[in-house]
Design goal:
230 residues; mainly alpha; 2 domains; 10 helices; globular
Length: 230
């Protein structure tokens, strides 16, 4: 659909797409060729059907996430920008036990650290290893882009989310959001290549996720240990 519009020199005048206003704009586009119009209308219809299906899936995931064993971790992860319920659920389930890692090793597990080639005294870093969970890596990379957007204080969604977590989680999440956005500002000021910068942000985001999830699971493990001993 986007390709058809761009091929005919039609560009959406606003920055944010896939909003209600963008949807109305898509429906207003007209072409001289009946065949082209039919193709375009079919693509618009398909996009709307897919969006509706994804919305239903997201709602179902949200229902499951409320009562699953990972609910505390999901709620904590959702305090970070770019992570809503579907992403939080995916990361929580994919990683499982966050206490297996450290803030440094979690990046290696999801394949977000640079590969390295050493020969004698020389050391060369290459592309990321892409080891471990491809799905978790994808979720982190997508979430990392959100930290590039302007940020001064939490928006309405984050404020609501911060209210349902403990004070330690709240403070840590706020620190993480400020830190990750600041790193994006530094990369942009240095004119760092966006894809490379985002990979570095995603790697650090993995560490912040670990710092929120691992303490909660560690407390849970300790509580279960005390119950077993009793």
């Amino acid at each position: 659909m986007n390709a058809i519009l761009l091929r005919h020199g039609i560009r959406y005048p606003e920055k944010t797409k896939w909003t209600k206003a963008h949807g109305e704009w898509l429906h207003r586009q007209r072409f001289d060729s009946p065949v082209l119009q039919f193709t375009y209308d079919t693509d618009v219809e398909q996009a709307e059907l897919l969006a509706a299906r994804l919305k239903r899936i997201d709602q179902r995931v949200a229902e499951i996430a409320k009562d699953c064993q990972y609910a505390p971790v999901i709620n904590a992860l959702m305090c970070l920008r770019g992570i809503e319920v579907t992403t939080g659920f995916g990361l929580a389930v994919e990683i499982g036990d966050w206490t297996r890692f450290t803030g440094a090793s979690i990046g290696s597990y999801v394949g977000l650290v640079p590969s390295e080639q050493s020969s004698g005294q020389s050391r060369h870093q290459g592309p990321i290893t892409k080891a471990g969970s491809k799905y978790a890596r994808k979720l982190l990379i997508e979430a990392a882009w959100q930290h590039r957007r302007p940020y001064a204080r939490p928006g309405l969604r984050l404020l609501r989310q911060l209210e349902i977590v403990g004070p330690d989680t709240r403070i840590r999440a706020l620190e993480g959001n400020h830190r990750l956005h600041h790193k994006w500002e530094v990369f942009d000021a240095r004119k760092k290549r966006s894809v490379t910068a985002n990979t570095a942000i995603a790697r650090e985001l993995a560490g912040w996720c670990w710092s929120l999830a691992a303490p909660l699971q560690r407390k849970d493990h300790e509580g279960q240990g005390h119950m077993t001993a009793a």
